[in-house]
Write a structure and sequence with these properties.
Layout lengths: L27 H13 L4 E4 L2 E5 L10 H7 L11 H15 L3 E7 L5 H15 L4 H21 E2 L7 E2 L2 E8 L5 E9 L17 H9 L2 H6 L24 H15 L3 H17 L4 E5 L5 E5 L2 H11 L3 H9 E6 L2 E6 L2 H31 L8 E7 L11 H32 L12 H8 L5 H10 L6 H12 L5 E3 L17 E6 L2 E6 L3 H6 L4 H8 L4 H6 L16 H17 L2 E8 L12 H10 L2 H11 L2 E4 H8 L14 H11 L7 E3 L3 E4 L2 H139 L7 H23 L20 H21 L3 H17 L6 H6 L16 H6 L6 E8 L6 E8 L3 E6 L5 E6 L3 E6 L6 E6 L11 E4 L3 H16 L4 E4 L2 E6 L2 E9 L9 E4 L4 E6 L1
Parallel strand pairs: 2-16, 3-12, 3-16, 24-27, 29-31
Antiparallel strand pairs: 1-2, 4-5, 6-7, 6-12, 8-9, 10-11, 13-14, 14-15, 17-19, 18-19, 20-21, 20-26, 21-22, 22-23, 24-25, 25-26, 28-29, 30-31
The structure holds adenosine-5'-diphosphate and magnesium ion (MG).
Length: 1107
């Protein structure tokens, strides 16, 4: 179902006709009636094509809610009932999507709702455009600029309680995505005369009242203000309070808005100070004073007020006072000062007040622009919203109204030109036949006012610049001369006035037939207001202040920048800015909102037909409708048209596969719509008569009802079917799952059973096989066994047979031998003696012995005495001989070995033999000594010069010389001593000096004691009573203990033929002096090599620790 079909349309549920182009019949009456009907039903918006007519409801309507914004968002213009949002949406989307700069032109009389409309457009655009913190701040600042500008630039007039007294054009700038970037506000001609004087029933600008009602007591005190409105001359005495306006609340809104827009606190304070100063200026009064020379002078009556103003503005009081009393005119480098009379002083005061306020307003606009200006330099798309003061006709119309109405005239001009031009262009573009439609063109009025040579503004400027006496009257005279022939100009002197002396027209007035009606202007004040003069003394005085804001407002007061050139007149300034504005608007795509005021009472629900009819007329709305209808009442691009009506034709419904234009053609042909009723443009279908459109709409409505039923039917069917199919599908799935579940369970059980059976069968089969295999194996084994036994039997049998055979053979041989022997003996008995057998025997023995010895000779073992081998005995009977021979051989080779020895070596071997007899298997040290060559003289005493003296002292041959450790008897410590052995003595000498310490005959030695261990300690026991034994027995230690004792033993034996006792025990007694001391060997840790550590424990015990 296409989305567009559910949408409501401009044509759905319509009250009256939403688009006046479709009015049938189309007359001014029906048009007015349609507006009224819609107005009565709260439908304040009506279209003329794409122009929105807005009738001011003068009451809040519930059609601006966020829901409405959403409803109109992204919808086609004609899709929904007419609304200002539709226009705003169209403009925004075409700006965003088609990259067309837009302007929204809002026109209408004062109080018709332009300002409200402009705010609605802005708020709609703000609501639909981009989101995000930064964007929201921009939006908020743009929206909040309104309350500030309204407070300073709006006032209550008779027509509108919140009438804009300035023109405002705001450019909202967007980036390529349509997000707002910022804005620029241009303001046009503030009605500043209102500051000093307001027409009856009107008020000054809102800010004055807001400040006095809403400012806190502190603030008012600071600004030196009184809360009472009546206190101030500039505030109209009457109508200060307005129904429906809460000034105090508005003041808070304005302050808040200023903060949001970005005003600093001190800036806001400065602004209010200027406002207060303006208000207080109005209360300054002057009184006349005559001087001697007859010149009039004025004086300020109450200087207190002036003082307060000066304080507020940071001004020097004397300077300002002087500026109110004198006027300096400069001409050709000459300065002339004249005094001001009372009237001139009042003029100066008001001029200052107006200028101050006007410049403050311009400053505010610039300041706001500074805040809301787009920060980026990227290309911007622009949507301009123009809210200019509306056409005004008052009782007394002056320069301001003239200017305002001129501006409206220009806007009307642009409207006429653009709407018609656009319409015409579209017809031509679409290739539709087009006949020109006549309409009133107000260009002629614009000419009258703005023409450069004879326009009213040009003449006013001329008057102002002209030397000589110039007054409003001279200006009127001039107008009468130049414009008298103009058809739209009337004055007492003009031709077009019906009578030469039109009494309805006062002398000091002229009248212009504006497009919106005739307006009579009083010339009084035209020249002054156009000149817009502020005495130079005043601007200079203002520049001198130290209030920075005020100073910046009067740059021309700076003497350095002073120029004699006149500033441009107000009229020419305005004309120039309007021209710029128009040029600007022409570059943009225009969107029109034409505001209509339904009554003069500002009251809701009242629709004054006469008033509205008048506006319809002068706004040219009828022409607008006619132009729209001249060709065709309704036009629409082919696509949406086909989309909307395709259900009316069977060929296009529900889908049309070809071009939209072809579709529309088929559709219209099938509906039998007369061909003169429509035309095919290039991209749009143009329908001439609204009736045709309504017919189409009617048919569509009926068809829609039918289609709705059809759709409903199909939808229900579809829904039921889908539901059914879904249920069916679900049922199948569920049953499939259930079946699967049960089958799975069954399968698992079967599988388990099968497996069990299978395993039983396999087991049974395996066992069977095993049995079979075992049987086979057994069979094989028994066969082998039987075979083995059989072979064994066979073999044994064979063996037996062979043995038997051998025995028999042997027996045969023996018998044969015996028999042969017997035969031989019998034969040879007669040849041999009886002992021949013995000789043979002996001979045989001899032969055998001979062979044995020869063999032995060849097999003799080596001659080493340690060799143990001996050839094997060949015959048993040689056993004794063989052993004997072995012994003899060994003794012989030992003798051989011994024969090689020298005497010395023999002695050594004897000693070694002796040592082995003494110590082998008794003392552990013995094994060490086996390797030692018992060299004897280790010190080589005879050769070594060191022992020359000692050598000399010893007479006998030295058999042993060595260094031993003599153990001190008292403490067991050892000291090295030379130990010498000769044939008869043993000598102990000092090792270093060679001095003999003891010389003891060996005869005195009784015995020697040693331990069983590996230590080298030995004790030499001496004969009791001998001279040598006076000190007692000796204790020595030496590695060569075995050699020493062996030698000692042999020496003593050779000397005395007695063997001394060698005691080998781990505990023995020695005689020290008179004491018998026990030497005891104990096992201990190794301390100094292999040497034993001796320690005299007490009188009776010497302990020797042996490792
Ligand atoms: N759309 C609207 N809905 C309700 N009231 C409106 C609407 N438009 C205007 N008004 C009322 O009309 C008054 C005047 O409107 P305003 O826009 O100030 O007129 P203009 O700017 O044309 O002089 C507003 O103060 C408001 O009370
Ligand atoms: Mg307004």
């Amino acid at each position: 179902m296409a989305k567009s079909e559910v949408k409501t349309s401009l044509l759905d549920n319509m009250i009256g006709v939403g688009d006046s182009v479709l009015l049938e019949p189309l007359t001014e009456d029906t048009f007015l009636e349609n507006l009224k009907k819609r107005f009565d039903h709260c439908e304040i918006y009506t279209y003329i094509g794409d122009v929105v007519i807005s009738v001011n409801p003068y009451r809040p309507l519930p059609i601006y809610t966020p829901a409405k914004v959403e409803e109109y968002r992204n919808r086609n213009f004609y899709e929904l009932s007419p609304h200002i949002y539709a226009l705003a949406d169209e403009a925004y989307r075409s700006l965003r999507d088609q990259d067309k700069d837009q302007c929204i032109l809002i026109t209408g009389e004062s109080g018709a709702g332009k300002t409200e409309a402009s705010k609605l457009v802005m708020s709609y655009v703000a609501a639909v455009c981009g989101k995000g913190a930064e964007v929201n701040q921009v939006k908020e600042q743009l929206l909040q600029s309104n309350p500030v500008l309204e407070a300073f630039g709006n006032a209550k007039t008779v027509r509108n309680d919140n009438s804009s007294r300035f023109g405002k054009y705001m450019d909202i700038e967007f980036d390529f995505k349509g997000d707002p970037l910022g804005g620029v506000i241009s303001n046009y001609l503030l009605e500043k005369s209102r500051v000093c004087k307001q027409p009856r029933g009107e008020r000054n600008f809102h800010i004055f009242y807001q400040l006095l009602s809403g400012g806190s007591d502190d603030l008012l005190k600071q600004l030196k203000l009184e809360r009472d409105f009546n206190h101030y001359n500039y505030l109209g005495q009457e109508s200060a309070e307005v129904n429906g306006i809460d000034d105090a609340a508005n003041f808070r809104t304005v302050k808040n808005a200023m903060q949001i827009v970005g005003f600093m606190d001190d800036e806001a304070e400065s602004v209010l100070a200027v406002v207060a100063a303006v208000l207080k200026l109005g209360n300054i009064e002057f009184k006349p004073e005559s001087r001697v020379n007859g010149m009039d002078e004025s004086r300020i009556q109450d200087k207190n007020g002036l003082k307060e103003i000066c304080e507020l503005l940071g001004q020097d009081q004397a300077v300002l006072e002087r500026a109110f009393s004198f006027r300096t005119v400069e001409a050709k480098q000459e300065k002339v000062s004249t005094t001001l009379n009372v009237a001139q002083a009042y003029y100066a005061r008001d001029a200052l007040a107006k200028n101050l306020y006007n410049r403050l307003f311009t400053w505010l606009v610039n300041r706001i622009n500074g805040s809301i200006k787009a920060q980026t330099k990227v290309r911007k798309k622009v949507m301009g919203v123009l809210d200019i003061y509306g056409f005004e006709i008052f009782e007394n119309n002056s320069f301001e109204q003239f200017i305002i109405n001129y501006c409206n005239e220009k806007l009307q001009q642009i409207f006429i030109e653009l709407t018609l031009k656009e319409e015409q262009e579209e017809y031509i573009k679409e290739g539709i036949e087009w006949t020109h439609i006549e309409y009133f063109n107000n260009a002629i009025i614009c000419e009258l006012i703005e023409n450069n040579t004879n326009g009213i503004l040009a003449m006013l400027d001329e008057e102002c610049l002209r030397p000589g006496t110039v007054s409003d009257e001279t200006f009127l005279e001039k107008l009468n001369q130049v414009c008298a022939v103009h058809e739209r100009f009337e004055s007492r002197m003009s031709k077009s006035s019906r009578f030469l002396n039109d009494t309805s027209l006062p002398h000091n007035c002229f009248r212009i037939q504006h497009y919106a009606g005739k307006v009579m202007y009083h010339v009084a004040g035209f020249v002054d207001k156009n000149n817009d003069l502020l005495y130079r003394d005043l601007s200079q005085a203002m520049w001198k202040t130290n209030h920075s804001l005020v100073k910046s407002l009067f740059p021309e007061g700076n003497p350095a920048k002073m120029s004699l050139k006149r500033p441009p007149t107000a009229g020419s300034q305005f004309r120039a800015s309007v021209a710029t504005l128009m040029k600007n608007l022409l570059t943009k795509n225009p969107n029109y909102i034409r505001c209509i005021k339904p009554n003069d009472q500002k009251a809701p629900l009242i629709f004054s037909e006469a008033l509205v009819r008048h506006q319809i007329n002068y706004l040219g709305l009828m022409e607008n409708v006619y132009v729209r209808r001249a060709g065709y009442a309704f036009k629409q691009p082919y696509d949406p048209c086909l989309e909307r009506y395709k259900m009316l034709c069977s060929q296009t419904w529900p889908h049309w596969r070809h071009g939209a234009r072809d579709g529309v053609e088929v559709l219209l042909t099938e509906l039998r719509i007369p061909s003169e009723e429509f035309s095919y443009g290039r991209s749009k279908i143009f329908i001439r008569n609204p009736r045709t459109l309504f017919k189409l709409e009617d048919q569509r409505k009926h068809r829609l009802q039918y289609l709705a039923t059809l759709i409903q039917k199909i939808y229900r069917g579809w829904k039921c079917r889908t539901n059914f199919l879904l249920m069916k599908k679900s049922q199948i799935i569920i049953s499939a799952w259930t079946k699967r579940y049960f089958q799975q369970k069954k399968y698992l059980r079967l599988k388990m059973v099968t497996l069990r059976i299978q395993s039983y069968i396999r087991g049974w089969k395996a066992r069977k096989l095993l049995r079979e295999l075992k049987h086979q194996k057994r069979c094989v084994e028994s066969v082998t066994t039987i075979a083995a036994y059989w072979r064994g039997t066979q073999a044994r049998r064979e063996l037996k047979r062979l043995k038997e055979e051998a025995r028999r053979k042997h027996a045969v041989a023996v018998i044969w031998a015996y028999w042969l022997g017997l035969k031989v003996r019998r034969e040879y008995r007669k040849f041999f003696r009886a002992n021949a057998g013995r000789k043979i025997y002996e001979f045989t023995i001899q032969r055998i012995m001979q062979k044995y010895f020869l063999d032995l000779r060849n097999k003799l073992p080596p001659l080493s005495p340690t060799e143990r081998s001996w050839p094997v005995r060949p015959y048993l009977f040689l056993d004794g001989t063989h052993t004997q021979l072995r012994r003899i051989f060994h003794l012989w080779r030992c003798k051989k070995y011994r024969d090689q020895f020298t005497d010395q070596k023999r002695t050594t071997y004897e000693e070694k033999l002796e040592a082995s007899e003494l110590f082998k298997d008794k003392k552990a040290l013995y094994t060490n000594s086996v390797q030692q060559p018992f060299q004897g003289d280790y010190l080589e005493i005879s050769k070594n010069p060191k022992y020359q003296k000692l050598n000399g002292a010893v007479e006998e041959k030295i058999l042993l010389a060595d260094v031993v450790n003599k153990i001190n008897r008292a403490n067991g410590k050892g000291a090295p001593r030379i130990f010498l052995l000769t044939k008869s003595n043993f000598i102990i000498a000092d090792q270093k000096s060679g001095q003999i310490k003891s010389n003891i005959p060996v005869m005195d030695i009784t015995s020697v004691s040693v331990s069983k261990q590996t230590d080298g300690l030995f004790a030499v026991h001496l004969k009791e009573g001998s001279t040598a034994a006076s000190k007692g027995d000796f204790l020595f230690t030496s590695d060569r203990l075995i050699e020493i004792i062996t030698k000692l033993y042999r020496i003593i034996f050779s000397k005395t033929n007695q063997k001394i006792a060698v005691e080998i025990t781990n505990e023995f007694l020695v005689q020290f002096n008179q004491d018998k001391v026990c030497v005891k060997f104990i096992q201990g840790a190794q301390k100094n090599g292999n040497l034993p550590a001796c320690k005299r424990k007490n009188n009776r015990l010497l302990e020797v620790t042996v490792p």
